[in-house]
């Protein structure tokens, strides 16, 4: 990133003003809400958004990456612990810095977590608290930093740039323990390659969520669903789902629920194309490289895989026609509700994992 761009971005983080209106919730209303809820209140802030892309590099925009990670944090928290969650944005919206801090304050958040991607030619992960932070902010940073780093390191070697302090608006103006995370460098090719991986983003989100849970003393939570391991000789509905996903990735095979030589060959082809270990075994890294996010309006073989799994494995009557219409949306939402996932009708990595679990 050019030096002028870095200065502009840091200025945005340091500034008190911005582009969007102040939040609609009044202080009195937020205080009333707080008194009726015993659940911890977690405020998640995906950095940048809307007209502000944040840092840009290697075909990526910071605003999209921060949103993907933040939504993953929300989903992992909702799937595992009983918490209230509010986000500064859940879509590509412009939010001023003053909106973010004021909204968190008015809501009565117990903690504030702002998610960012770094730039400037470095590499690795670092986190920030305010320069004269409270003991709560120090404890929050100490809980989250190692958990995030551990999550990232399940995908590769990550440099630990340390736990830092900074006079950043969202850390200075919020009235609760607060942390800002800088998750790799968008302008470094090796870091960007990881940021393009759905598996890495999911692991980063999981690390954030686990750090939050540790700070709040929430315990281990509900065990997360795991990716099944499939290989030559496996059979059943998960193999059918795998075969539909392979078809989605332009592999030619029959969907029969039997993992034979043709399915193994297709798996090896996909693994080779994604620079994975070519062993024909479908484990977590292969699954996260082939699952695709699907929602209402989408069509194709991945949708058929979702529909078949909902109907045949999970007992939710769903027409298998490859068209993600209102009926499939209703079925997905029913499934998400049963599994205590975020009920949004979108099948992303966490919903795929639950379908296969």
UniProtKB/TrEMBL annotation:
It comes from the Bacteria. GO terms for biological process: peptidoglycan catabolic process. CDD domains: MurNAc-LAA. GO terms for molecular function: N-acetylmuramoyl-L-alanine amidase activity. PROSITE patterns: TAT. Residues 1-32 form the signal peptide. It holds the Pfam family Amidase_3. GO terms for cellular component: outer membrane-bounded periplasmic space. Residues 101-213 form the MurNAc-LAA domain. SMART domains: Ami_3 (SM00646). Keywords: Hydrolase, Signal. This is N-acetylmuramoyl-L-alanine amidase. The lineage of its organism: Bacteria, Bacillati, Actinomycetota, Actinomycetes, Glycomycetales.
